[in-house]
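Reopening this one. Same input as before:
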Amino acid sequence: MGRLGEYFKMAIDSIRSNKGRTLLTMLGIIIGISSVIMITTIGNGLQGSIKDLYGSVGNVMYVWPGEDAESSPEEITETDMEEIREIEGITGVTPTGSAKGKLTTRKGNFDTNISVGNADMESTDRLDILYGRFFTSSEADGGSMVCVIPEADAEKLYGAKNVVGQKLDIEVAGSIQEAEIVGVSKSQTTSGIMAMMMGNTDKITLYMPMNALNVWGYDYSYTAEIYISAEEGVAADYMEKETMDILKRNHSVKNEKIFEAYTAAGEQDQMTSMFSMITVFITVVAAIALLVGGIGIMNIMLVSVTERTREIGIRKSLGAKTGSIMIQFLAESAIIALIGGGIGIICGIILGLVVCAVLSMTAAIPWSAALWATLFACGIGLFFGIYPARKAAKLSPIEALRRE
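Same output, byte for byte:
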C-alpha cells in the first residue's frame, strides 16, 4: 500500500511540473463531463416542469370535430354532455371557447384572454378558489356578466389578492361591458421554457360564462369542442372509449374521424419522450468529446514517456520492476482524467443550475450521473493510459540510459 502511494505521489509531482500541458489535456474530459452533467440536469428540470404542468392540468381530455367532419362538423349537444357526465370517474364537462380583450384599471391598461365555458370549468381547468366562489350553472345559462380571476392577475390589476366584488370594464371588439369579479383562484405556475413553448404571455386571464360573450356578438349556441375532466387514476383510454361510444351512438355515426380526442396524459408522454431523445442525442455528442479527451491523455502520456526515457532507464537499472513502471504511468493518466472529471462535474452542475434558473425551472442535479461520470473519467484515463504505460514499462534499461 505504501508503494502504491509512492507511485501516486510521483504521478502528482509529474503533473505539477507540467501544469499548462496537463490542463490542456484535461479540456476534452472537462468539456465532455460538464456537458453530460449540464444536459442531464436541464433534461431532469424539463421533465419535472412537464410533470408539474400536466399535474396542474389534471386528468383532462379535449374533444373536437375530426378531419372527416371539418366541412359540416357535428354539434356536441347538451344531451351528449349530460351522458358523458354520467361516465364513472368523470368530474366535469364543459364547452370551451375564448375571446381577447382589453382592461382598464387605476394600474393601467392590460390585454386579456377570456376563457369561457359552463360551471364545470372549475373542475376542467382545475381552479382552486381562494376568495369568493366560481360562477353558478344558472349564471352560466343566463350569460351573467361575472368572472373569476387568478390571484396573480388580481394583484396586477388592483395591488391586492382579494378583489371579490370589484367591477371590471372589459373591452372586446370595440364594445365595453362591465363584469363583476365573483371569485379569485390560485394562480397556476408554469416554468419559463414551458411558458414559451405553450405561448403563454403576460395577459390577464378571466374565466367567464360562455353565454356572457353574447353581448359582444359571439354566438356559442353551437358546441363543437368540449373539455372533460376525470378523477385521478381514471385511464385515458377508458375516458376516450366511453366518450366516443356515446358520441357515435347519439349521432348515429361509425366513422372514427367524426370526433377526435387527446388527453393531457398522452401529450405528457409525448413531450417527455421527445425531451428524453434530445437529452440522449446531446449526451452522445458529449461522449464523443470524452473520447477525444481520452485520446488527448494517451497522446500526452506518450510525450511524457519520451521525455522521461532516461528516468525510466535509471529506475529500471536500480531494480524497478516492469509492473511498477506501468502502474506509475497508469496512475498519472488516471489522476489526469479524475481531476478533469471533477472539474467537469462542478462546471456541469453550475451551468445546469444557471440555465434552469434562467428558464425558471427547478433544477434536479443527477448525482447518479455525476458518480458514473467520475467512474467513466477514471476508466478513460486507465484505458487510454495502458498503451503509453506498457511502452514505458517495456523500455530496455540500457537503451533508455543511452538517450539524452
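So the earlier flakiness isn't reproducible anymore. For the record, Confidence is low (pLDDT under 50) at residues 191-198.
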